[in-house]
Inverse folding.
């Protein structure tokens, strides 16, 4: 069962956003069955990060921040039921989370219907948290926030603690007592890790966390069932040197989820921030989501990192990945690096213009076996669509250089 009026609203929006907002077919709806609910899971790297601590709260304290309005309208146009927002600065106590909801999401933006999420979750992240050691081997140990040198020595790159954080909004209840976080899991404790040999000092290796932000297992209660929303934001596989430290870390951050859903033997080494060991129980339903900073074909990923999930036996990939007409148009108009890509530009989720690495498919919503699949899409309207103003093109980014990606699943 869907939320009242949601199908009619989404059908109306499809006429505006075309393929980006395609609705489920009658056959898909029938397959869902009378006792199953259609739930729209989504991920959006909304670039709601700010350069200084406290700036996001200041921007969200009033309802007139232009970028925040664009982010909210994008979310309203797609109307996801369960949503991960990447690059949302962490603020203790959830103040930024509440302000964005009350001042933006719950207020209709430019004719879009308000969207309300009764359930929300956020937690600390590793970005901007000082490690206390010289991680990059330059400038000694930097512990004063507010510089690139400080960010390089933090557990995850950030100019202050909490920059580039994450947030989950849900129309369905979140089992907050059962949430598991893996912010402090150490990279060295992953068997067979691909940490760059000889790059980090013994002191750095002893304390370096794997997760550049965090990894969260957020159980969402849908009727009588639970779907584990497995969310993260691995570091980009770039901004490093020949040692490929970020590419390798990105690979193992993605591998954490592959092991977590891989059964007791494969996940036994994992421990969460409460010290509980192991991964997801076999047969549990899940949706993996996030800006994984990894394209299955193009870009700078280490050893095709995201294929660890896309080809995983516990995953049920849709017959056609989330797609848009806007991604095809952008690749054609921008050319450059896009012309040499192997992947289909219809599946691109980020607009990095024509310079390296070009536009990529880096934002993913990956459902598990046991979930029925419905419609999906990437919110990327073409230039002749009225909603194109929310995505711009090339160097013009009125909202974010990433696109909202969504997947409908059928749950009992």
């Amino acid at each position: 069962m869907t939320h009242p009026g949601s199908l009619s609203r989404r059908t109306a929006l499809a006429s505006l956003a075309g393929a980006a907002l395609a609705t489920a077919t009658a056959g898909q709806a029938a397959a869902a069955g009378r006792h199953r609910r259609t739930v729209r899971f989504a991920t959006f790297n909304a670039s709601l990060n700010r350069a200084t601590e406290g700036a996001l709260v200041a921007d969200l304290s009033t309802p007139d921040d232009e970028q925040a309005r664009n982010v909210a309208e994008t979310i309203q146009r797609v109307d996801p039921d369960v949503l991960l927002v990447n690059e949302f600065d962490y603020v203790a106590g959830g103040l930024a989370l509440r302000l964005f909801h009350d001042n933006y999401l719950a207020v209709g933006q430019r004719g879009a219907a308000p969207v309300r999420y009764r359930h929300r979750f956020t937690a600390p992240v590793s970005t901007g948290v000082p490690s206390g050691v010289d991680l990059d081997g330059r400038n000694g140990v930097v512990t004063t926030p507010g510089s690139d040198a400080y960010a390089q020595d933090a557990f995850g790159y950030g100019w202050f603690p909490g920059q580039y954080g994450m947030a989950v909004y849900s129309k369905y209840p979140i089992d907050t007592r059962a949430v598991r976080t893996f912010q402090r899991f150490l990279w060295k404790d992953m068997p067979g890790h691909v940490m760059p040999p000889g790059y980090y000092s013994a002191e750095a290796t002893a304390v370096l966390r794997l997760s550049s932000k965090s990894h969260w297992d957020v159980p969402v209660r849908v009727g009588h069932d639970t779907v584990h929303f497995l969310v993260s934001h691995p570091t980009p596989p770039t901004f490093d040197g020949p040692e490929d430290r970020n590419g390798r870390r990105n690979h193992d951050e993605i591998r954490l989820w592959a092991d977590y859903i891989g059964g007791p033997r494969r996940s036994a080494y994992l421990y969460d921030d409460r010290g509980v060991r192991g991964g997801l129980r076999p047969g549990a339903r899940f949706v993996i989501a996030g800006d994984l900073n990894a394209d299955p074909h193009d870009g700078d990923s280490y050893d095709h990192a995201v294929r660890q999930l896309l080809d995983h036996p516990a995953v049920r990939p849709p017959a056609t990945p989330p797609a848009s007409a806007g991604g095809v148009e952008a690749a054609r108009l921008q050319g450059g690096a896009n012309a040499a890509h192997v992947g289909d530009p219809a599946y691109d989720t980020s607009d990095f213009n024509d310079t390296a690495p070009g536009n990529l498919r880096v934002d993913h919503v990956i459902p598990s076996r046991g979930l029925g699949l419905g419609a999906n899409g990437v919110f990327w309207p073409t230039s002749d669509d009225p909603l194109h103003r929310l995505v711009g093109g090339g160097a013009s980014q009125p909202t974010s250089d990433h696109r909202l990606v969504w997947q409908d699943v059928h749950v009992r």
The CA atoms of residues 160 and 210 lie 19 Å apart. The chain is about 25% helix and 15% strand. Confidence is low (pLDDT under 50) at residues 1-33.
